[in-house]
Amino acid sequence: MSTRLAFITGASSGIGQALALRYYQAGYALALVARRTAQIEDWRAANGLDAQRVGIYEADVAVPDSIVAAAQASIARQGLADVVIANAGISIGMDTAMREDIAVMARIFAVNNVGMAATFHPFVQAMRERRSGTLVGIASVAGIRGLPGHGGYCASKAGVIGYCESLRGELRPDGVQVVTLCPGYIDTPLTRKNRYAMPFLMPATAFADKAFDAIEAGVRYRTIPWQMGVVAKLMRALPNAWFDRLLVGRSRKPRQTES
Hints:
By secondary structure, this protein is of the alpha/beta class. The chain has helices at residues 14-25, 37-46, 64-78, 99-130, 151-171, 204-217, 226-237, 240-246, and strands spanning 5-9, 29-34, 54-58, 83-86, 134-138, 177-183, 186-187, 202-203, 221-224.
């Protein structure tokens, strides 16, 4: 295939959908994955995207066999992707004192961490052999310091940062790039459920523009928007006692039963 190909999970809404449109506008063919494929098809038609350039695949990234099968189907149909963006993720508040929230944490890790590794898995060896390709992990500023009520999400995104860093070291000698992106607050259906202030809130389309530029430039790690990167560094530098005091009384993310 002469047209470059982007494989994107979580493409039925939010950041994934915005990234899909940005890559399409840049001339890429798309392989889009979600549990709700009808929403992707409706979005494709509404935006006038050429069906010949857009492959749509149904998968649940929390089930490794499901996302691996979708990736293998896309390779068989559209060829080996140039860019793979593991964007699918969930964010649910949790309270460790509640037994049912342990299952919530397991679900978060199944999607955000194991699901990311399973997304990358079908592409790694083939990209090594080709000696080119880019794997993109969508982490979060929330992975830099833990926030009350966000234990599962913060831990999962810290895990994404560490996992992508490890993978980058493994694959760079083979010509395969690994990019870690840490969004701050991006205006999506997911963040609209938050009941606390979201500084430097950025439209999803603006995030997609900056993410596309970062990925094309081959950066290793970037926080978007940059202002949240500054905030994150300051938070990381705060002594624990100060950080704990700063978070007293902060609103918590809704738990699954409260959503």
